[in-house]
Amino acid sequence: MNISKDQMKLFPEDSKIVNKLPFFYGWVIVFVSGIILFCSAPGQTYVNSVFLEPMLNELDWSRTTYSATYTMGSLTAAVMMIIVGRVLDKFGYRLILSILCILMGLSTLWMSNVDSIYKLFIAFALLRTIGQGSFQLVSTNLVSTWFIKRRGFATGISSLGQGASMFVFPLLAHLLIQNFGWRSSWQILGIIVLGILLPLAIFFVKDSPEKVGLLPDGVQKDETDLDEEITNEINFTFGEAIVTKTFWFLVFSVVATPLIITGLHFHHVSILATKGLGSGFAAFTMSLFGPTALISNFFCGYLADKIPNRFLMACGQISLILTMLWLVTISETWQAVIYVSMASLSMSLVHTSYTVIWANYYGRKHLGSIRGFSSSATVGFSALGALPFGIIYDRTQSYDQALYYLILIPIFCCICSLMATKPSKRLVIEK
């Protein structure tokens, strides 16, 4: 990738700041990206599920109405992700993340005043677009933009923020609801996100290393001739990427994880109840997803720099298949703990390698548009996650049957992962 002197002088003040640090500024970006994932909680299923019972009790809505509205809001978010990706490419991460922080605060304020179904739909659409979609996209793309050689390791470290969020926010939301009610709790969550993330977005987010006079991975300018991964980076436009077979193999390679894992999370207590395990223990095991994800994300990030990402994605799907088969056999508490560990590993293998592979294959320049489209599919399938488990259970009175039927999806995804070989493009010197 050719880097002009003019490009390096776009933000001279930022360049002075980052060059004073004794370490590569990309690690600051990794920290901020982890905080972005941590603050995505208000738009995530693991927090919204905590608000389910208190909201239904006060508003007197059926569980079906609430769930259907949540699904429709999530599907709306999936469509919006295509737009968000293009906006990121055009205006940059600092500006868009700052706007998203403010919108998150306004969205939680809106949710705290919900008193009708249409208001609930708007709230879900906003929260899912910002938290579950946009924050995830900004975080992962930032890391991929600042790193090339150590992209997997850096992604694994930033993903620790997601694991911490899964551990902290469900407990925090529960305590807030118990002490302040669900309406005030939504407002407090919005204030927390604004207070933590907005200052970081304004003062610490830099759109790319080139814009502040640096190179990816902290490579020195006089070393670029020796580093082919930096100098020979090839960037696809969205139009060029979408016509490659690999693009579609990648899109379909990941649908099993958001669909099935979301479904397992949504029905977690009910599934374990059918195995003879109490709701209190089920709630405890749900809280274990955070700590186990912390460990597996770090491990999988390290592997993503050592092993071809499509093989790791395939391993993630195989791990998911084994997780589903193991869940069928559960009858003891220790087996449930192993199930949580296996599910976390499968999520980490797929998420980390899937994040890294897009930038590895298609470059950094148009990553927002490219990943925005793929994120649309991810958010869309996560929106549908609870439905197949519920439908199959209602017809068969067995979650085991749902697991047997749905196991075909990760098998399909495993094949797509293995077929997703690196696309080729004629090297064109960009003006």
Please give a structural write-up:
The chain is an all-alpha fold. The protein has one domain (26-208, 234-419): Growth Hormone, Chain: A (Up-down Bundle). Helix content is 77%, strand content 0%. It is built from 22 helices and no strands. It is globular.
Give the name of the CATH architecture: Up-down Bundle
Give a count of the beta strands, DSSP E runs of length 2 or more: 0
Task: Look at the structure and give the CATH class.
Answer: Mainly Alpha
CATH superfamily: MFS general substrate transporter like domains
> Which structural class do the helices and strands define?
mainly alpha
Tell me the β content.
under 5%
Gyration radius over CA: 21 Å
CATH-defined topology: Growth Hormone, Chain: A
The SSE string, one letter per element, is HHHHHHHHHHHHHHHHHHHHHH
Summed up, the domain count is 1
* Poorly predicted regions: 1-11, 427-431
Chain-wise SSE layout:
Elements: H1 5-8, H2 12-19, H3 26-38, H4 45-59, H5 63-91, H6 93-112, H7 117-146, H8 151-158, H9 160-203, H10 228-231, H11 238-242, H12 245-253, H13 256-266, H14 268-274, H15 279-287, H16 289-304, H17 309-329, H18 333-362, H19 367-383, H20 386-396, H21 399-406, H22 408-419
